[in-house]
Amino acid sequence: VRRRSGALRDALRAGGLDALLLSSAHALRYYAGFTGTSGLAVVTPAGAWFLTDPRYREQARAEVRGMRRIVASGTLTGEIAARGLLQGCRRAGFEEEQVTADLLAHLRRSARGTRFVPAGTPVEAPMLRKDTEELAAIRRAIGISERVLDEVLGLLRPGLREREVAAEISHRQRLYGADGDAFEPIVAAGARSALPHARASAGRIKAGEPLLLDFGCTVAGYRSDLTRTVVLGRAPARLRALHAAVLAAQEAAMAAVRPGTDGRTVDAAARGELRRRGLERHFVHSLGHGIGLRIHEGPRLSARSTDPLAEGEVVTIEPGVYLPGFGGVRIEDDVLVTGRGCRRLTRSPRDLLVIA
Ligand code: ZN
Ligand code: ZN
């Protein structure tokens, strides 16, 4: 916590700010240790305050470190005004992607002389490089998801509904120690697998068609994210060819990951492999994203991303191709950026999983 509050003081200095307001669940968890859903933190060079409402009095006492705790009787912004926490503060940074228009209006009313400016990037930057404890949580989340993948493969049979498979995934992840799903599991069979973000439906799995499974879980707030493509019975030659192309794209991307490289260079390595096979136009999303307390965070790996990679970041590498009417293939692994390249944290086999 001390190291993390130091990062906030650096952000204040670098941004020429007199205060920072933290309002997102992930920033409050990272900087204050709070795992509840209602809180606000005010950080100034003079000190740091964590505000919550009476429902979280005990939880805040147990969890919040490195900040003075305030349990507000009215609104949190009213409490900021009443205590003059932003008194004399000219510029205050806020998390622009996390703040509602309503909260911003209340903040402005609670501190009339203060200008509120976007500061989401400096607040989030320290979260991207994971320390040992954070990495351990991500590895545990990955371990649970991979155990569940293994078990669910054994349950698959023609006629099973997508949502039955999704329910098995969620249930088993919890059973094995996850706090919950990292996001709603994607289970997409047949032509539906050509929808990159299909929700599990009442549709049934058929033999000889692609089945795409994309899921993850949360451990101590940290997430896993894994995709495999499966087929029951015999795999059609076209599906094998698509899978081989996506795997080659993923290998090329992993070989391009190293500190200092930007997101678009890694994305381009994958896209180039697909272009050589005439499949580039079917790769309709970006290559990957950072994972941590959020399922999507920096650095972004996309055609436009100039985000530089840094040692200690954990990113997904998830190329895919989607043919309308036929189906899709995606392979997604989580990798740690190391000093010289990357290390794959997910260990499940990456072949087209053919289930007899
Ligand atoms: Zn995923
Ligand atoms: Zn992902």
How would you explain this protein's 3D organization?
By secondary structure, this protein is an alpha+beta fold. 36% of the residues lie in helices and 23% in strands. It contains 10 helices and 20 strands. The strands form 6 sheets. A 6-stranded mixed sheet has the order 4-3-2-1-5-6, sandwiched between helices. α4 (76-83) runs parallel beside α5 (101-110), α7 crosses α8 (162-175) and α9 packs antiparallel against α10 (263-276). The longest helix has 24 residues, at 132-155. The structure holds zinc ion (2 copies). One zinc ion is lined by residues 225, 289, 316, 318, 332. Residues 225, 289, 316, 318, 332 line the site of one zinc ion.
Characteristics of this structure?
6-stranded mixed β-sheet, elongated, binds zinc ion, 356 residues, alpha+beta, 4-stranded mixed β-sheet
Which helices and strands appear, and what pairs or packs with what?
Elements (H helix, E strand, L loop, with lengths): L1 H13 L4 E4 L2 H8 L7 E5 L2 E6 L4 H7 L4 E4 L4 H8 L7 E4 L6 H10 L4 E4 L1 H9 L3 H24 L6 H14 L4 E2 L4 E4 L20 E6 L1 E3 L2 E2 L2 E7 L4 H20 L6 H14 L11 E3 L6 E5 L12 E4 L2 E4 L3 E4 L2 E5 L4 E3 L8 E3 L1
Parallel strand pairs: 1-5, 3-4, 5-6, 12-20
Antiparallel strand pairs: 1-2, 2-3, 7-10, 8-9, 9-12, 10-11, 13-14, 15-18, 16-17, 18-19
The structure holds zinc ion (2 copies).
One zinc ion binds next to loops.
